[in-house]
Amino acid sequence: ILLFSERARRRDGSHEVLLIGAGGAVSLGYRAPAGFSPTDAAAIDSRQLLVLNRRFDGRAAAELQLVDLAGLRPGTVLTGRPLARLEPPLPVDNMEGLALRREGSEWIVYLLSDDNLSAAQRTLLLKFASLPEALR
């Protein structure tokens, strides 16, 4: 299990991450894109992770990053490779949820925001198809 903190930071500025397994918890870090925070993640397999990052400071945006999990050890700072960024005029809001599943040879990626009972936000459910090569 990987737990990402949206707000808690390490001394190096990366977000706090806990890797929890049979042997206990290991502290890691995650370097989000500048101005963004991680809000959800989904495992592609035992070697790769898809991470949803959001920016919601009056300029909503979301970025999906592919993170390589090879060679994890205590203190590792995870970094990702950008796969997609959503910014206006594309539909984007306070993106908080991510789900991933296979459909034939494609990966289906779902992104979710909720309006938090605020007139300034929207609830969106976005669905994207990705070719297998994009998630490698």
Describe the structure.
With 136 residues, the protein is mainly beta. 0% of the residues lie in helices and 59% in strands. The protein is built from no helices and ten strands. It has a seven-stranded mixed sheet with strand order 1-2-3-7-6-5-4, with no helix packed on it. Strands 8-9-10 form a three-stranded antiparallel sheet, with no helix packed on it. A hairpin with a 5-residue loop joins strand 1 (2-9) and strand 2 (15-21).
Any chance you could write out the topology, listing elements then pairs?
Elements: E1 2-9, E2 15-21, E3 24-31, E4 37-43, E5 48-55, E6 61-68, E7 77-86, E8 95-103, E9 106-113, E10 124-130
Parallel strand pairs: 3-7
Antiparallel strand pairs: 1-2, 2-3, 4-5, 5-6, 6-7, 8-9, 9-10
Strand content: over 45%
Overall mean confidence score, pLDDT:
91
Which runs of at least 5 residues are low in confidence (pLDDT < 50)? Answer: none
Structural class: mainly beta
Strand order of the largest sheet: 1-2-3-7-6-5-4
User: What is the 3D shape?
Assistant: globular
Number of strand segments: 10
- Please bin the fraction of helical residues: under 10%
Q: Write down the secondary-structure element order.
A: EEEEEEEEEE
What characterizes the major β-sheet?
A: 7 strands, mixed
Radius of gyration: 15 Å
The number of helical runs is 0
Q: How far apart are the first and last residues' alpha carbons, in Å?
A: 21 Å
